[in-house]
Specification:
The protein is mainly α. Helix content is 58%, strand content 0%. It starts with a helix and ends in a 5-residue tail after the last helix. The structure holds heme C. The site of heme C has 20 residues, from helix 3 and helix 4.
Length: 106
Amino acid sequence: MHSKLKSAILGFLALALSFAASAQDPAKAKAGERIYRNYCATCHGDDMVNTSTSTFDLRRLRADERPRFENSVTNGKNQMPPWKGVISPDDMDLIWNYLRTNANDK
Ligand code: HEC
């Protein structure tokens, strides 16, 4: 293949992949927001703005901290109760999509 064309194609693929990795699904984020309001907002605040300093600011979670998010939500942490059996893995995915819309590093 012509090398200029080849590098143009590779460049396009890299761009498309990075977009796919960072893009959040707006429908998922919307559904996640509803779950967040029901279960999380009492402590983590409306729109993730904390009402108290002892509660973790969810906007601080970075894009690569999804495993930490899932672990803390599933098993709880200190004053936060575990959500296992309450929040399903699908719902956790929706909440994560919502969190990413408001993240400090988005
Ligand atoms: C009863 C109050 C309360 C509710 C409700 C609550 N949290 Fe928390 N959450 C906390 C507190 C307090 C912390 C800080 C824990 C600590 O580090 O001591 C925390 C921390 C976290 C953390 C960060 C833990 C870490 O890894 O440092 C995540 C993620 C989190 N909450 C997600 C959620 C989600 C998602 C929901 C809704 C399903 C939720 N929380 C509901 C009180 C709450």
